[in-house]
Model the fold of this input.
Amino acid sequence: MRTTPLDAHREPDLSFVRDTVQSITPHLRRGQLVVLESTTYPGTTEEVVVPILEKSGQHCPVTPYLTDGRKVTPADEPETDFLVAFSPEREDPGNKQFKTNRFRKSSAA
Done:
């Protein structure tokens, strides 16, 4: 596992993410869950991954939510062909004492 590389401007180089998503797009099927695991910046899933996957003709709308302070509900219920989630990398590059079984893993959809 390695962290997301930086470009010449010290911004995340998302070419690896884009290339990977483009390679799986032809194989995307209705009902599948696609999980981005990366050290990338917030918004990459919605801004980069979903638009590439939607070129397949399937849709995964990012639904806005409403809250009244007690309950969260979707603003609308659009048709969803596939789902996406983000799971941040949980590693400590360069730390020889780092063990993957010592941390909890979380994902969000």
